[in-house]
Amino acid sequence: MDKIAKIKISGHDLIMYILELIGIGLGAVIAAFAIEEFLVPCTILDGGIVGISIILNNKLGIPLGILTVVLNIPFLLIGAKKMGKKFIVKAAYAMVIFSVFLEIFAPMVNATKDYLLAVSFGGVILGIGVGLVIRFGGCLDGTETVAILLNKKFKLPVGKIVLLFNVIIFVVAGFVFDFERAMYSLLTYFVTSKVLDIVESGLEQTKAAMIITNDAKEISHQIYKRLGRTVTIMEGEGLVSGKKVVLYCVLTRFEVHELRDIINNVDSSAFIAISDVSEIIGNHVKKTGNIKLPE
């Protein structure tokens, strides 16, 4: 019976993983469509590596799909040891699909050359695509990987790091093209960010997770091991279920998918509530080499 149960669980996990890859692939295709059919014709930039690639593509004539793959490789190598194999595999998969479809959509007739329409519809469609990729645990841009690593090491907010990267890119674009294009690009970035939040079910950069479980020790250890975050352990009592252990931790929206994976693997019957955190005051303990977990 145990062997049969294990086979069923592994089969279920495989199906879920395939569905996640389908969701990531769909999001990457949608994002590529938005870039090539709305933004590139008007020389409006996306943020991160894609924005840098659009600048180089415009000036050097190198295909955009090739540039996005090549420029993202160093960031994937940097994050490979820190982010975990599963995240890197999904990120690499998303970037390859994205790059391939950039080349597929490039020869097609552009959707519009009107700047306002490009910003509005391009930003919305791009937000949907990127939101799907992130929702299913992938990543389209290497700068996001670096931002997550900086967040883990220096406690800098992921959103602010990404915004800083993008502002620098848009300023450079202002000098390379003109500042009107840079302003359109910045407006597109804000439209994309808002739609991305909607696709992510309103997820903000920082989240609070409250987990009610019968296996608090293993879940807390896995959260510490895989996310590098400690948890606060509290005792609770359900009206019907009796005494329970409640875990509380703060994490980024990029880590929510990983947290779900931990819960499903350790205690699928656990109850988890995730809420927005508007502000964090004080030091939030993250993984260091000096902390020893209790047995």
List the helices and strands and how they pair.
Elements: H1 2-39, H2 48-60, H3 64-83, H4 85-105, H5 115-135, H6 142-154, H7 158-176, H8 179-199, E1 206-213, H9 216-227, E2 232-238, E3 242-252, H10 256-266, E4 271-276
Antiparallel strand pairs: 1-3, 1-4, 2-3
Commentary on this structure:
- The protein has 295 residues and is α+β, with helices and mostly antiparallel strands.
- It folds into two domains: 2-199, no CATH class; 206-276, Alpha-Beta Plaits, CATH 3.30.70.120.
- 64% of the residues lie in helices and 11% in strands.
- The protein is built from ten helices and four strands, in the order ααααααααβαββαβ.
- The chain has helices at 2-39, 48-60, 64-83, 85-105, 115-135, 142-154, 158-176, 179-199, 216-227, 256-266, and strands at residues 206-213, 232-238, 242-252, 271-276.
- It has a four-stranded antiparallel beta sheet, covered by helices on one side.
- Strand 2 and strand 3 form a beta hairpin.
- Residues 1-9 have low confidence and may be disordered.
